[in-house]
């Protein structure tokens, strides 16, 4: 079972994505601030961290920068309203697995899990 951390101050914005992840046998946990998310990640391992675009204490990309400084091998996805090219430029070097739209639906859960499983299988095969 995959362990996934959702970081968003608004539970409704990621609720459909969360339901889609859980429907596909993923265990999800939710925290509402970037700082609390970072403290959770320091204590426990997650297969994937998904962050909303903006939280009260930081943006999603600021959170990812702090996350990879703490645990560089954590897979992550970010909700972002940036155009794909602008997002790529803003997130370059951060190892973001996938950009998600605002209020991502369950269909994004399946795509995200598929991408994650491919990455995890590649990691196992090369180890």
What are the SSEs and their pairings?
Layout: E1 2-7, H1 15-23, E2 26-31, H2 34-43, E3 48-51, H3 60-70, E4 75-79, H4 84-91, E5 96-100, H5 106-126
Parallel strand pairs: 1-2, 1-3, 3-4, 4-5
Helix pairs in contact: 1-5, 2-3
Structure, explained:
With 127 residues, the chain is an alpha/beta fold. The protein has a single domain, classed as Response regulator (Rossmann fold), CATH 3.40.50. It is 46% helix and 20% strand. It contains 5 helices and 5 strands. It has helices at residues 15-23, 34-43, 60-70, 84-91, 106-126, and strands spanning 2-7, 26-31, 48-51, 75-79, 96-100. The chain has a 5-stranded parallel sheet, with helices on both faces. Strand 1, helix 1 and strand 2 form a beta-alpha-beta unit. Helix 1 (15-23) crosses helix 5 and helix 2 runs parallel beside helix 3. The longest helix is centred in the last third of the chain and has 21 residues, at 106-126. The model has no long low-confidence stretch (mean pLDDT 92).
């Amino acid at each position: 079972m995959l362990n996934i951390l959702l970081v968003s101050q608004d539970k409704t914005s990621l609720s459909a994505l969360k339901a889609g992840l859980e429907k596909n046998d993923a265990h999800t946990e939710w925290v509402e601030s970037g700082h609390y998310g970072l403290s959770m990640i320091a204590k426990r391992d997650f297969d994937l961290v998904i962050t909303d675009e903006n939280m009260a204490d930081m943006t999603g990309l600021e959170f990812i920068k702090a996350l990879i400084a703490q645990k560089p091998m954590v897979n992550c996805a970010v909700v972002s309203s940036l155009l794909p090219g602008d997002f790529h430029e803003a997130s370059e070097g951060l190892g973001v697995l996938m950009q998600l739209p605002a209020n991502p639906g369950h269909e994004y859960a399946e795509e995200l899990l598929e991408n994650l499983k491919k990455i995890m299988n590649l990691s196992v095969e090369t180890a």
